[in-house]
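Exercise 7b. Backbone tokens:
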């Protein structure tokens, strides 16, 4: 495998089973990775779960706490374990890619806890980027990827808003990867995510509600959400 900064290395793949909702398990997994491979050059925080329902239908532990643990705390925990060594090694560039969501940029009915987790992830990720740059660790670049719906099965039943097609996993992964290699702070896909952010920033809230809800159909995009199913019932699903 040839890395973008020119190093020719052999490729070895290993899988480590980790409960991302458990701090002790995340720390154990991080230690195992370092013991097996040593230096970490690229960290991608990608796992996530979603519960598509009104807030009052969320179970406090199974839905609310689990979503915040997996979507927000796990990336923070894992990054905290691996970041000091990444900062210390200036021999080659380091990259951190945090997979957020378009839901991190605007509110949407039937995904309140998920949106909250992604807003938190975006705020933490971009703040970390600034902290590293201000302290002189510019060799560690942080990228936050905010895609709209991706056809992985996690958001089965959801409908893309106007002019916003459901992205393929290949298109989403390609955009995220290219942005990470370039050290781009924020990658938004498709282009309508940027448009929605701009409109939300300039329009009064009630006006934006009309545009997002009635014109673009953002607020009804989760009305027919099913997600992946296990035993016949919709369940929170791992993201890709």
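Sequence design result:
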């Amino acid at each position: 495998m040839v890395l973008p900064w020119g190093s020719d290395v052999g490729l070895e793949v290993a899988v480590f089973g980790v409960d991302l909702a458990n701090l002790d398990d995340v720390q154990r997994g991080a230690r195992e990775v370092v013991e097996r491979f040593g230096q970490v050059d690229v960290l991608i925080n990608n796992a996530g779960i979603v519960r598509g329902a009104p807030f009052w239908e969320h179970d406090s532990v199974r839905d609310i706490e689990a979503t915040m643990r997996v979507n927000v705390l796990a990336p923070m925990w894992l990054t905290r374990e691996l970041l000091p060594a990444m900062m210390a090694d200036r021999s080659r560039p380091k990259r951190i890619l945090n997979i957020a969501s378009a839901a991190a940029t605007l509110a949407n009915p039937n995904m309140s806890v998920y949106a909250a987790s992604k807003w938190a992830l975006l705020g933490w990720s971009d703040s970390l980027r600034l902290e590293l740059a201000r302290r002189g660790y510019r060799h560690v670049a942080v990228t936050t990827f905010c895609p709209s719906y991706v056809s992985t099965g996690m958001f089965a039943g959801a409908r893309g808003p106007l002019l916003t097609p459901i992205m393929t996993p290949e298109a989403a992964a390609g955009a995220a990867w290219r942005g990470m290699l370039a050290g781009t702070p924020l990658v938004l896909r498709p282009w309508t995510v940027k448009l929605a952010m701009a409109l939300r920033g300039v329009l009064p809230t009630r006006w934006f509600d009309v545009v997002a809800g009635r014109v673009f159909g953002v607020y009804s995009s989760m009305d027919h959400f099913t997600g992946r199913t296990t035993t016949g019932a919709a369940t929170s699903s791992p993201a890709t």
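Instructor comment: The first helix runs from residue 23 to 37. The helical segments are 23-37, 60-88, 112-134, 169-182, 191-202, 205-215.
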